[in-house]
Amino acid sequence: MLHKIDHINIVVTDMARSIRFYTELLGFQLTKQAYVEGDWVETVVGLPDVQADVAYLVLPDGPRLELMQYNAPVGTARKENSLPNTVGLRHVAFQVTDIDAIVKRLRMEKIDVLSSPASVPASTVSHQEGAKWFCYLRDPDGVILELAEYR
């Protein structure tokens, strides 16, 4: 029986850049870094000769974020994977406070914020927490993230 999300894995191309983005700009805390290789990881991920750097980050009330940079075999990014309507897992959403201030700071840092925060009409979807304001942005590798604030 499932009972909670353990972690979310994001494959990155530049570990230092991604750690900076998620810690300094989004407020995650880096808890651990590791280097993984060997039969055990190759069996689980289904790839040969895996060598990867891994970083674990946390938020106070959220699941762990696992950043993984494959040094071997190196994967490729596909532009279609960063489009919001591509089939499959498309974004990870983070609940925030003061979405407007966060978006302003991200834009000052030249982060690809796709729009200003917009409100979901209560007649379309109502949320117990209040009116939902949200926007999408892309991390340094093009992964779509959502910021959501309930007012």
From TrEMBL:
Gene Ontology MF term list: dioxygenase activity; lactoylglutathione lyase activity; metal ion binding; methylmalonyl-CoA epimerase activity
Domain of life (superkingdom): Bacteria
Domain VOC, chain residue ranges per copy: 4-150
Key word Isomerase present: no
Keyword Metal-binding set for record: yes
PROSITE patterns attached to this UniProt entry: GLYOXALASE_I_1 (PS00934), VOC (PS51819)
Protein name (Swiss-Prot/TrEMBL): Catechol 2,3-dioxygenase
Protein species of origin: Candidatus Kentrum sp. TUN
